[in-house]
Design brief:
The chain is an alpha/beta fold. The protein has three domains: 200 residues, NAD(P)-binding Rossmann-like Domain (Rossmann fold, 3-Layer(aba) Sandwich), CATH 3.40.50; 87 residues, Rossmann fold (3-Layer(aba) Sandwich), CATH 3.40.50; 135 residues, 3-Layer(aba) Sandwich (Rossmann fold). Helix content is 44%, strand content 13%. It is built from 18 helices and 14 strands. Helix 5 packs parallel to helix 6 and helix 11 runs antiparallel to helix 12. The chain starts with a strand and ends in a 6-residue tail after the last strand. The structure holds uridine-5'-diphosphate-glucuronic acid. Uridine-5'-diphosphate-glucuronic acid binds next to helix 9. Belongs to the UDP-glucose/GDP-mannose dehydrogenase family. Keywords: NAD, Oxidoreductase.
Length: 439
């Protein structure tokens, strides 16, 4: 099989590389010449564990190609994935101009039957727009070429994307013809060896599945954050409650960890977009609106604890932050809770010294020199009045607390991810604050 993947962002790059890994001939296309040149030399625009080696390996094997020439790549293709960005507009709805421009480009160049698949997260109804765009482009050329559109949402997690792609829980594909179903089944066959299903459905349902999945997960998190906050007030321990409810298989143990709010490029954007789509169609998504407002408030919880601890006056205090990215194993700073916390600390007249194993270069784009970037996690805590654990990177889980205590001015830790044991921290002489746990 021969496929094209248009858009070498996070989704496109992982998708293209993983298809090449199982032996399929893949061309990844982007309009950004520099990005393509870099990729040909093994330089990636994103950080994702294991991806760099996989790209190099498949480029060397001659299965993975990078190009700016959509017209060439699309010729004789069995499947073309559209994986370009859908940036949120001012009002939160996804902007489809890039998706539709690619559809047009494909229509202007395709020369035989192919399945055109939307892979980017797109609102319900987008595949139908893609089909119209293709029909128009073919009409202008005055040619008649058969094609199908399909919707194939992705469920990759940043930091675990390769594993998620190679060993998926499920693959969801929206199609409107048996021919397209056959092509997509053949394409995904190498990934279904673990017995997990490929689920075919109509196109709007596949498009909706993506939003429903992310919204359900965001709801779990906001729900647990609400419960954690209430646990603190009522003298309960959310770790116990979490175990208590998680052992009910209907609830499950995953994704019920409270913290300082969900971030990243997906949950915030998709929750907003679904609320918007519903409103445009006369429906009020009440649960999701609450999910969003709980999350906004949760991003401020750690800051509020810091201020309370210091009696409301933070002027001149030096705060150390461990972690900047919205979660571990990524350098993604989009909608990261750290940004809200830092903004609030700076507004109160604090200085901030932060350390993140990967995200500091990315953080600099937004935060510039408003904070100090430490050379390691111990450097960050020198003379600090308090330490805030913002992202649960593995290296923060078991630090040498004797060294930390010696370096800090005040032995106070605010743990936004509940990664330490309250009793151990107290034995080590720290004042310890976390989320939803009696301390
Ligand atoms: C999410 C989904 O998990 C993927 O299935 C989906 O494909 C992806 O969005 C997407 O739409 O592209 P991702 O944003 O990479 O993936 O990150 P997650 O690992 O899901 O974490 C999201 C946020 O939830 C993080 O801020 C994390 O700290 C927070 N979280 C997660 C919690 O606060 N508690 C939990 O128990 C789990």
């Amino acid at each position: 099989m021969k496929i094209a993947v248009v858009g070498t962002g996070y989704v496109g790059l992982v998708t293209g590389t993983c298809f090449a890994e199982v032996g399929i001939d893949v061309t990844c296309i982007d309009i950004d010449q520099k990005k393509i040149d870099n990729l040909r030399h093994g330089i990636l625009p994103i950080y994702e564990p294991g991806l760099e080696e996989m790209v190099s390996r498949n480029v060397e094997a001659g299965r993975l190609h990078f190009s700016t020439n959509l017209g060439e790549a699309i010729k004789d293709c069995d499947v073309a994935f559209i994986a370009v960005g859908t940036p949120p507009g001012e009002d939160g709805s996804a902007d489809l101009k890039y998706v539709l421009a690619v559809a047009r480009g494909i229509g202007e160049n395709m020369n035989s039957y192919g399945v055109i698949v939307t892979k980017s997260t797109v609102p319900v109804g987008t595949a139908a727009k893609v089909r119209r765009e293709l029909e128009q482009a073919l009409g202008k050329r005055g040619v008649q070429i058969d094609f199908d559109v399909a919707s194939n949402p992705e469920f990759l997690k940043e930091g675990a994307a390769i594993d998620d792609f190679l060993k998926p829980d499920r693959i969801v594909v929206g199609v409107s013809s048996e021919r397209a179903e056959e092509v997509m089944r053949k394409l995904y066959k190498p990934f279904l060896l673990n017995g997990h299903p490929i689920i075919f459905m109509d196109i709007p349902s596949a498009e909706m599945t993506k939003y429903a999945a992310n919204s359900m997960l965001a709801t779990k998190i906001s729900f647990m954050n609400d419960i954690a906050n209430l646990c603190e007030i009522m003298g309960a321990d959310v770790n116990m409650v979490r175990k208590g409810i998680g052992s009910d298989a209907r609830i499950g143990t995953k994704f019920i960890y409270p913290g300082i709010g969900y971030g990243g490029s997906c949950f915030p954007k998709d929750v907003k977009a679904l609320i918007k789509t519903a409103a445009e169609n006369g429906y009020d998504m009440q649960v999701l609106k609450a999910v969003e407002s709980v999350n906004d408030a949760q991003k401020e919880v750690l800051f509020n604890k810091v201020r309370k601890h210091f009696g409301g006056d933070l002027k001149g205090k030096k705060l150390a932050l461990w972690g900047l990215s919205f979660k571990p194993k990524t350098d993604d700073m989009r909608e990261a809770p750290s940004l809200v916390i830092i903004e609030k600390l700076l507004a109160e007249g604090c200085t901030v010294s932060a350390y993140d194993p990967v995200a500091m270069p990315e953080a600099r784009h937004t935060l510039h020199d408003t904070i100090t970037y430490a050379k390691d996690q111990y450097d960050a805590v020198i003379d600090a009045d308090a330490l805030l654990v913002v992202t649960e990177w593995p290296e923060f889980r078991a630090p040498n607390f004797e060294v930390v205590a010696r370096l800090m001015k005040n032995k106070v830790v605010f743990d936004g991810r509940n990664i330490y044991e309250a009793t151990e921290m107290e034995q080590a002489g720290f004042a310890y604050h976390c989320i939803g746990i009696r301390t």
